[in-house]
Every structure is written in C-alpha cells, then in structure tokens.
TrEMBL record:
<protein>
    <submittedName>
        <fullName>Glycosyltransferase family 1 protein</fullName>
    </submittedName>
</protein>
<keyword id="KW-0808">Transferase</keyword>
<dbReference type="GO" id="GO:0016740">
    <property type="term" value="F:transferase activity"/>
</dbReference>
<feature type="domain" description="Spore protein YkvP/CgeB glycosyl transferase-like">
    <location>
        <begin position="243"/>
        <end position="350"/>
    </location>
</feature>
<dbReference type="Pfam" id="PF13524">
    <property type="entry name" value="Glyco_trans_1_2"/>
</dbReference>
<dbReference type="InterPro" id="IPR055259">
    <property type="entry name" value="YkvP/CgeB_Glyco_trans-like"/>
</dbReference>
Length: 367
C-alpha cells in the first residue's frame, strides 16, 4: 500500500510539472514485486516519469499483480506486466491470459539476468516482450539449453554440472518465427544503483593493476563460470599488483577497491551483464570481460577495443589482453573515458525518453 501511494503521489507530481495537461497515453505497470533486480527494469521509467509525461504524453500508474483487475482498465493504452521467475509456467500463462485481450496492449517486461526466454507462451499472449539483452543471432533461441540459460548450459557442458534437480532443468527450443514480439529494451546500466554513482576520473592515482571479485562458494553452479577467472587471475605475473579477494566487504570498501584499480575483470554471473560492469566504468577502471559478441544490449558498453576489452570464456588469453593496457596508460584511459561518456549519455533523460519513444512506436505498430 505504501509503495502504491508513493507512486501515485509521483504521478500527481509529474502531472503538475507539465501543467496538468491530459496525457496522450496511459500505461499501467503490474508486478508482484518479488525480485528486486527484476523490478529495477522499471527504475528509469519512475526516475524519468516527468519527462515521459512532458515529451511523450505518457502517464504511468502501478498496481500489485495479485490485486483485482481494475474497472478503469479501459482508460489505459498499455499494460506492462512483470512476474517473478519463481512462479510456474502454468501460473504465469494464466496470469497473462487474465490481462490479454482486454483492450490495452499487453507488454511483458522480462527482468531476468540472462538472455534466454523462460516462458515462450508469453510471446504469443503479449503484444511486446521486452528484454534487457537479446541473442545477437535469433537462431540461438532455437537452441535447447541445459538449465535456465545459455550460461547454465555452458556450465553443464564445460564442467559437467547437473541441473536435473533445478527448478528450471531445461529451456530453449523456441521457433524463431515466434519472436515477432521480442523487443530490446534497456539493461541494468539504468538501475538506481548505477544512476546514483559518481564518475571517478580515469587518471586518478591507482595502486592496483587488476582486480577481480570472481570467487563463489563451491556449491554454487556459478563456480563453473568463475573458477577459470580466479585461476587466470591468480596466475598473472607476480610483478603485477593483482587483487583477487575471496571475502565479502562493505559497499564502501568495494567502491574504494574499484577506484584504486586500473583494470577490472568482470566475469559472467546469472546473466552476461551485471552492476559490476558499470560500477567499474564509473570508477575509472578498464572493463575486461568474456566476449559479449553473442548478445545485443542497450546501452551498448561492450564494443571491443572502444568501451571494453573482451577475453575468451575460459580466460586463457587474460594476460595477453591486459598487458598492453598496463604498459600504455594512455590507451587504457582512452577506452575508459569513451565508456564513461557513453554511460553518462545513457543515464540522461534525453537518452531514455528517445528509447521509450521508439518502444511506444513499436507497441503501436504491434496492434
């Protein structure tokens, strides 16, 4: 109730800021609020709601998923739906059917960390299916994955990890012909955590050559993605100042660590992209990360040699990838500054309003 009231007040303020002009479109966001990182997909919508109202005529309201469908639904042009990945496929499809075909265009916001599509049935029930990042080759959606995603599949095939007892033992196998509703939205670079950071100069004094927080407990499947990174980091030349910590630290200590490092190695996690990628850029680190060429995302801070440095998924080339930038501080800072500039642009209201404008045009065409 408190969250609903806070968002209602925000809507009134947005209306007052633009002189109470009637909105051209109304969107109702509906979610269960169960997964914080997924809910953050809505963060830039709330953050820029006044500009969205002023520039696009878009007014935004929110409703908890488990509440009744409002009698005022016909007043909305769009319904944006978000559901926790922990719910069953049957429950999700049933929920989507409740909202589909009632007048407003139905948009599903997939806030999962990975690039896969967990519930293919939503592609047929929704007018648009918005993801944070998508496979660069649509044919990859036809692949059958062990576990929830291409990353669990990689862990299974490279390290023999079993997902037979996982809540999602297999996924994929989607006919690319069903992808007409798939739409690339925006990634976690626009989350509140990143928007609240301060840019740290690339040329600030730095005492750590390379840092990499890649360690995970042995009972986690992420170990199969991270262990090669830890091994590669620990085998780097001894005359390099390398930090490979295994213990958790307070956020302030972590931020200081990044601001002290020239290079940050950021491995994959539950998805390809994480906050650390953008925290590193904001801290003035050169981002080094497994090759990202298999996905498309926005904002795209993963342009090889321009905004990040790619390495193999097994990290066999980590030393060779980092050495030139430890030897040439100018080259390192040039990439960092380009990445910081592009991230700053993406965090601006103008960038997001333009992105939402494209999204609304696509939604109109899907009708």
């Amino acid at each position: 109730m408190r969250q609903r009231l806070r968002r209602a007040i925000g809507g009134w303020r947005a209306a007052l800021a633009v002189g109470l002009r009637p909105s051209a479109r109304r969107m109702l966001l509906v979610s269960d609020g169960r997964e914080y990182t997924s809910e953050q997909q809505f963060a830039p919508i709330w953050r820029h709601r006044t500009r969205l109202r002023r520039d696009l005529g878009l007014a935004i309201d929110w409703l908890p998923l488990d509440g009744p469908i409002p009698s005022s639904l016909s007043h909305y042009d769009l319904v944006g739906l978000k559901i926790s990945f922990r719910r069953s496929a049957e429950a999700v499809a049933s929920t989507a059917r409740r909202w589909a075909g009632r007048g407003p265009r139905l948009v599903y916001f997939d806030g999962d960390d990975d690039s896969a599509i967990l519930w293919p049935a939503l592609l047929d029930l929704c007018d648009l299916y918005v993801k944070k990042h998508v496979f660069a080759d649509p044919a990859d959606y036809a692949r059958r994955f062990i576990g929830k995603s291409n990353l669990t599949d990689h862990a299974a095939r490279s390290a023999g990890r079993s997902f037979a007892d996982d809540i999602i033992p297999a996924s994929g196998g989607i006919d690319p012909a069903r992808l007409g509703a798939l739409h690339l939205g925006w990634n976690v670079a626009l989350d509140d955590r990143i928007a609240g950071l301060t840019v740290w100069p690339a040329d600030a004094p730095r005492t750590i050559d390379i840092c990499g927080r890649a360690y995970v407990a042995p009972d986690k499947w992420l170990l199969d993605l991270r262990a090669p990174a830890v091994a590669a980091l620990e085998s780097l030349p001894r005359d390099w100042a390398v930090a490979v910590p295994r213990e958790r630290v307070p956020q302030a200590d972590y931020d200081r660590e990044l601001r002290s490092a020239k290079i940050c190695v950021s491995p994959f996690g539950y998805g390809e992209i994480c906050w650390r990628d953008f925290e590193a850029i904001m801290a003035g680190c050169l981002l080094v990360k497994p090759d990202m060429s298999h996905i498309r995302t926005a904002p795209d801070l993963f342009v090889p040699g321009e905004t990040y440095v790619p390495v193999r998924w097994d990290y066999a080339d980590l030393e060779a990838a980092c050495a030139p930038f430890l030897a040439d501080e100018g080259a390192r800072m040039a990439i960092v500054r380009r990445a910081q500039a592009r991230l700053a642009e993406a965090l601006s209201p103008d960038w997001f309003v333009a992105r939402m404008g494209e999204w609304l045009e696509r939604a109109d065409r899907q009708r």
